[in-house]
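testing teh design pipeline on a random one, pls ignore if ur not involved
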């Protein structure tokens, strides 16, 4: 038995690209990915040793939620009713685009309809921009618990390991597995993904580090501005944005509690720490070091699967802050563009 995962959402959000990203080379041909016209018609099934992916035609702008919803539901029921147990859908990936940064009411309705079999996948997380991320997260997390949301980028190969882990959990409890069957299913899945995971992990690590360096450099650039008050809000926004993006690199939707906890490992807000440095030449290194330290603690937290406790995080923060103080942030060239 291999699980069946159904991938749906609006046209162009990156469904086919996502299936391509989680399957071995050659499974999904490049031609299947659209660059202008919608490319996926009806239901296209891609099969691997680990899973069967049903790539659905996307919801079109003129289509109503009810129309799209019954199109998907009909297929789910058709598969359930058939004699072939291997066709039953175990898990749905409902995709919305991180580039659009808006959750529409139609998305909200569909997500509710698919209920407890659905993972909400935010695609193109590489395209999420400052000023939009926070609002989008808040709307999403009102709709569905953070555990059921995964942020991915097929382009950067980020969040994919997280998506697979969550899907595996959903698939595993969707089936009444006979003894031993579950274990063999897990083993097959693990061996299929072992190499891909290693590659993704290396990339994720690099992305996280470059994001932290970028944010610390930005903090230094903000702190160098002469006006005391003017730099307060941007420093805070910069730090929070870094945390959201780091979460996304690991596939996590960061909620308020996690955000506050991570920003707090510095033992006070970045604003407080910077303002307290009454010697102007200390502002830059402090702002950079605090951001860097919070970044490294956040990275460790997401890397651990959100299990590290506050005490461990504080230690990570202190070690990284010390390390950052050795860096001359004034001399580091800060790129305006994000990594
Ligand atoms: N930046 C970015 N673009 C993506 C990503 N995934 C897909 N795309 C682009 O989005 C467009 C639509 O992708 P496609 O997979 O055909 O979307 P579908 O209609 O939902 O199946 C294509 O131009 C892709 O190259 C991603 O993770 N990041
Ligand atoms: Mg498609």
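output:
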């Amino acid at each position: 038995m291999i699980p069946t995962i159904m991938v749906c959402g609006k046209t162009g959000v990156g469904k086919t690209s996502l299936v391509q990203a989680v399957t071995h080379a050659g499974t999904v041909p490049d031609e299947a990915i659209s660059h202008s016209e919608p490319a996926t018609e009806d239901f296209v099934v891609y099969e691997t040793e680990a899973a069967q992916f049903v790539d659905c035609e996307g919801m079109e702008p003129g289509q109503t939620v009810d129309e799209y919803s019954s199109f998907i539901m009909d297929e789910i029921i058709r598969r359930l009713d058939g004699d072939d147990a291997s066709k039953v859908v175990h898990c749905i990936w409902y995709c919305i685009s991180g580039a659009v940064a808006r959750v529409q009411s139609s998305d909200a309705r569909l997500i509710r309809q698919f209920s407890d079999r659905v993972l909400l996948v935010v695609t193109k997380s590489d395209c999420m921009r400052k000023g939009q991320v926070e609002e989008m997260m808040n709307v999403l997390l009102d709709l569905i618990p953070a555990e059921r949301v995964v942020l991915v980028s097929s382009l950067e190969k980020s969040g994919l390991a997280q998506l697979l882990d969550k899907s595996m959990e959903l698939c595993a409890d969707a089936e009444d597995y006979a003894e031993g069957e579950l274990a063999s299913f897990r083993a097959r899945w693990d061996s299929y993904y072992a190499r891909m995971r290693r590659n993704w992990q290396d990339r994720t690590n690099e992305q996280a580090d470059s994001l932290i360096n970028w944010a610390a450099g930005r903090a230094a650039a903000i702190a160098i501005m002469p006006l005391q008050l003017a730099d307060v809000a941007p420093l805070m926004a910069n730090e929070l944005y870094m945390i959201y993006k780091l979460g996304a690199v690991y596939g996590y939707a960061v909620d308020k509690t996690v955000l506050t906890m991570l920003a707090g490992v510095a033992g006070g807000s970045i604003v407080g720490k910077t303002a307290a440095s009454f010697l102007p030449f200390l502002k830059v290194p402090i702002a950079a070091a605090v951001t860097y330290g919070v970044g490294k603690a956040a990275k460790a937290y997401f890397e651990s699967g959100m299990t590290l406790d506050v005490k461990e995080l504080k230690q990570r923060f202190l070690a990284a802050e010390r390390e950052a103080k050795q860096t001359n942030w004034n001399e580091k060239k800060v790129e305006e563009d994000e990594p």
